Structures are given as C-alpha cells and as structure tokens.
Amino acid sequence: MFDIAWSEMLLIGGVALIVIGPKDLPGALRTAGQAIGKIRRMASEFQGQFNDAMREAELTDLKKQVDDIGNSIQASTNFDPIEPMKDFGAADASKPAAADDKVIRDAEATLAALPAPELPAPVSIEPAPVAEPDADTKPKRRRKTVATEEPVVAAEAVPAEEPPAKPVRKRKAKAAEVEGGETA
C-alpha cells in the first residue's frame, strides 16, 4: 500500500522507541491499530454504499430502457385487446355464432367420415411345457421336517441322578528311612 521497506520500518520503530519510550510503546501501538481498524471499516462501509448507489443507478437506466422498448413495440402494433371484445358484444353478434356453428358441423362431418379404428386380434398366452423327469434319475431326497416344539419338562419334576462316586484312591505310603530308623 505505502511501499515501505524493512529498513524504513526498522528506522520508524527505532524513532518511536526513543520518542514514545519503552513503557508507553505497547499502548501507543494498540491505539494506532484500533484507529487503523476504524478507518478500514469506514472505508469498506463507504465503498458498499457507493456500490449500492451504482446498482440503483444501473437499475433505473435498465428500467428506462425496458419501458422505452415496450412503448416502441406497443406504438408499432397499435393493438387494442379491448376492441375485439367490443365487437363481440355488438348487435352483429349472431354472425360469429353462425360461423362457429358451421365450423363445428364441418368438423363433426369429417370425424364421421373417418373409418372406425380396428382393435388388434386377441393374444392368447399358453403355458410353457414342463419337462418330465427322466426315468433313469432318482428323485432328490427331501429333508425331513423336525418338530421344533418339544415338551418342556420342569427341572424340578425330574429327579436328578447323581453320578456314581469314584472310589477313593489309596496312596502308597512311602517309607523313608532316616538314619534313626524313623519313617516320615
């Protein structure tokens, strides 16, 4: 924007440090940043208003051009849609009705002279022949269905049998002779 080089920025910062002082420099920079932000917001608001005014001016010009084109078309045709309606309600109204009746009668006569449409022949669909199984092959086995419902018997009603007890195994006594003749 201002085309300031790094060396120039460093010189400005050094002068600001000497003039303002190290204690007040952060506050001064914050104030300068807020002022620059306000100026930018005001500039963007002004630019937005200017663009809105330009759009409105363009729209009025465009509307004027469309109206001019519409007026020139209407002037060249000189068509008044109400005039034919005035003629329709006049005392001479029986003539258009008679002409309409004649047109309707001609159309009915033309339709009566046309041959009637023929219906297509009925179509019969026969089922396809089913292949017979060969005598040499065996028929496939079918699965037997298993009844899924089994009678439910309460566990308490059936006495539980205890497995037979295993015989107690006897351990062989090891005789460990100690020098004293004692066994352990």
TrEMBL record:
Compartments (UniProt record): Cell membrane; Membrane
Keywords for the protein's UniProt record, in alphabetical order: Cell membrane, Membrane, Protein transport, Translocation, Transmembrane, Transmembrane helix, Transport
Lineage: Bacteria, Pseudomonadati, Pseudomonadota, Alphaproteobacteria, Hyphomicrobiales
Assembly description: The Tat system comprises two distinct complexes: a TatABC complex, containing multiple copies of TatA, TatB and TatC subunits, and a separate TatA complex, containing only TatA subunits. Substrates initially bind to the TatABC complex, which probably triggers association of the separate TatA complex to form the active translocon.
Superkingdom field: Bacteria
Residue numbers spanned by region Disordered: 76-95, 120-184
Protein name as it appears in the record: Sec-independent protein translocase protein TatB
The keyword Cell membrane is annotated on this UniProt entry: yes
Family affiliation: Belongs to the TatB family.
Primary location recorded for the protein, binned into one broad class: membrane
Biased composition (Low complexity): 148-160
Stored Pfam families: TatA_B_E
HAMAP family according to UniProt: TatB
Record-linked NCBIfam families: tatB (TIGR01410)
Lipid bilayer topology: Single-pass membrane protein
PANTHER family found in the cross-reference section: SEC-INDEPENDENT PROTEIN TRANSLOCASE PROTEIN TATA, CHLOROPLASTIC
Function: Part of the twin-arginine translocation (Tat) system that transports large folded proteins containing a characteristic twin-arginine motif in their signal peptide across membranes. Together with TatC, TatB is part of a receptor directly interacting with Tat signal peptides. TatB may form an oligomeric binding site that transiently accommodates folded Tat precursor proteins before their translocation.
